[in-house]
Amino acid sequence: MDNLIPVSSQASLPVRPAHRAHNGELAALWRIYGGEPFQLLRTCEGRDLSRVRYRRAQEFQRSLEPGAPGDWTDFLYFTGIVVQLALSSHLLDVGFPDAWCARHIGLHVDRSLAYANASGFGRECDETERLTQVLSPYWKWNRRHLIDGTRPDEGGFTPDNVRSLLHELMEHVGQVTGHGRSLRRKRS
Fold first, then answer.
1. Coil, helix or strand for 7?
2. How many CB atoms lie within 10 A of CB 128?
3. Which candidate, 80, 86, 95, 15, places its Cα nearest to that of 55?
4. Domain limits for position 97
5. What is the count of structural domains for the chain?
6. 28, 91, 142, 143: most buried by Cβ count inside 10 Å?
7. pLDDT tens-digit profile of 17-75?
8. How does pLDDT run across 42-57, given as a tens digit for each residue?
């Protein structure tokens, strides 16, 4: 498994590389989900794309504020988008290729969380994990998909529960990637 060692080729990046200990966890997930193994390689391009994804997650998160238009299924669909953008911010930051994520993770936010935690994300929260399972794949909450009138199981979540979990997740992503700190500095 030595070919799976995370590499930090950019000394100027202000975040830590994924730990070598996570290689076994990643290999297990590659087997479970059928993903092609690759070497984690942190790049400036990945870091930039990570920052963009984090900012987009923040933008979409605003559409989930109380009083926003839409119904419960819209809310869950946009929640899936926020979660996926936030988790992909971490994945891109530690060296996951964007094309690999699109091909092997897609809209499965539960896979994103699993890969994130296997690469040093450190968000071991049962309720967040349960939410990602309810949302995955998040296209199932798209109104066009629900035309036949059947709705997937919503897991007993309420909008306030979801907003709280999203807030905690976004804070965690911001801390792990460092993207949240730069936003707070700009506001000061």
1. strand
2. 19
3. 86
4. 2-187
5. 1
6. 91
7. 444 445 678 888 888 888 888 888 899 999 999 999 999 999 999 999 998 888 888 89
8. 999 999 999 999 999 9
